[in-house]
Specification:
Two copies of one chain form a homodimer. By secondary structure, chain A is α/β, with parallel strands linked by helices. In chain A, the strands form two sheets. A four-stranded parallel beta sheet of chain A has the order 2-1-3-4, with helices on both faces. Chain A is elongated. Chain A starts with 6 loop residues before the first strand and ends with a strand. The relative contact order of chain A is 0.09. β9 of chain A pairs antiparallel with β2 of chain B, so a sheet runs across the interface.
């Protein structure tokens, strides 16, 4: 049974529902809505299913966000929304309309095409596998295949940033900078990748490392989290970044998505435009 | 300079633009649009910026998809769209309206809240770090902390699936099943995680492994890609799944997003509803 005390949003899709879910999540961040439940209805195939879902929505007083590419299902949900006085928001419809109107293409009307097993898909899977393998300085023999080499001292978010970029199809290797240890010669022989050096304000890094020590049950007073040691590490890193010609990015108080956005922009700057599906 | 020969879509945001980009990507999959360029304009702050972007859009004949949470910027883009006859699609606005109308909350109108460094954010980062560390049977000492243990023979998409689930905040360990090798005792002592066993049609797996061998420059006739060996491996895996009480999922011809969706559904079934931000 649905909990009728809390606010609920239905996400409906004739595919997985990831896209509508992403928009709902972005919207929720704009409200102080601590107890909003999101119920996802995936792979909707029939008008009957839609009727049942919309009646349930009306009953519990929720609204519906949907991505349906089959015109008959879209029409059904629109009609039911009016009949039952339930708000129903079409996420892809308006963009599809803009597309048809601006470029005069006809849509395919096949659910699930976003997740089809095509070249782009396999390229992304390969990039993720590569990136996991080349995390934290591992698998040096494969570095030559990297699109991006990410460098940074401990706790500058190398791993999640690498993974986020891998989801966009980039093969990312990352390497942890440790004071007094120069990167291996192989690092200086990479020709085809972009070098990104991560930096952070020493104060922030001290805070993050102290938290880390606490989480590990260690005293936060260890040298690892001291301002002196952190400052030295960051200076040592800067020297390596200069040697490698890294693009240096300050990640202080920046979310992974923000930094990844900047990196993708830098990569595409030379081309100015990046193409979807490359 | 923009290439005026090809179709272009502008993605505009007062934050990163990930959400609008996701909707555009989903929409593009519905068209045979090989050469559509997507240009992203992030961190838009002023009405002047919007005027310039919209004039550029009118000049090259493209349309605009936007997520703007500041009302004055939303109003500006609406007006400019009418003035310049450019299609402009508001992605979050209609969902925000439905939210306000249905639940009577007021939005915060602060850009970038989706990417703020809050508890959810750090939980996700931790999950990704955990999952990378526990890939491919590694870091057994940490298995006790797993939310999900994924098992499968070679090439059943364990790594990308684990990473995709980690992005949703789940700590995932994955373990490669190798014939005649029983998982370590530690596997049978895990109490708090969900066991997922991946399987696939032997024919598909043979095809995928043969491709893999080809990509590695090896003859596709190796036992690794033979129907006999693959069938044996899958049967051995099934026996282990039974011992562990795994939920068994057939991933033949299924995209990672599809399988991940099924897993999340299974996890939330006991609760029926899952909460955003948990």
């Amino acid at each position: 049974m649905l909990n009728e005390q809390s606010s609920t949003i239905f996400v409906c899709s004739d595919s997985v529902g990831e896209t509508a879910d992403a928009v709902v999540r972005a919207t929720l961040s704009q409200f102080d809505a601590e107890k909003v439940n999101v119920k996802r209805w995936s792979h909707i195939k029939s008008e009957d299913e839609i009727r049942n879902i919309m009646e349930e929505a009306a009953r519990i007083g929720c609204f519906v966000v949907y991505t349906l590419v089959l015109p008959e299902l879209r029409e059904m949900i629109r009609q039911e929304a009016i009949r039952l006085k339930v708000f129903a928001v079409d996420i892809m419809g308006p963009v599809m309309e803009a597309f048809v109107h601006t470029f005069h293409f006809a849509p395919k009307e096949t659910p699930g095409l976003l997740h089809q097993l095509d070249t782009t898909y396999f390229k992304r899977v390969e990039a993720i596998e590569y990136t996991v393998k080349c995390d934290d300085g591992q698998a040096q023999a494969d570095w030559q295949k990297a699109d991006i080499m990410l460098l940074g001292v401990s706790r500058t978010s190398k791993t999640p940033l690498s993974i986020f970029l891998a989801h966009k199809g980039y093969k990312v290797a990352n390497y942890p900078i440790v004071p007094e240890v120069n990167p291996p010669q192989a690092m200086f022989e990479l020709g085809n990748c972009i070098f990104i050096g991560l930096t952070m304000s020493p104060e922030s890094l001290v805070r993050i490392r102290a938290e880390r020590l606490k989480a590990m049950g260690l005293p936060p007073t260890a040298a690892y989290a001291s301002l002196k040691r952190v400052t030295e590490e960051l200076e040592f890193a800067q020297a390596i970044y200069r040697k490698l010609g890294c693009i240096v990015l300050d990640v202080t108080e920046r979310a992974i998505e923000e930094t990844a956005g900047t990196i993708v922009e830098r990569i595409s700057e030379s081309r100015f435009m990046y193409e979807i599906n490359t």
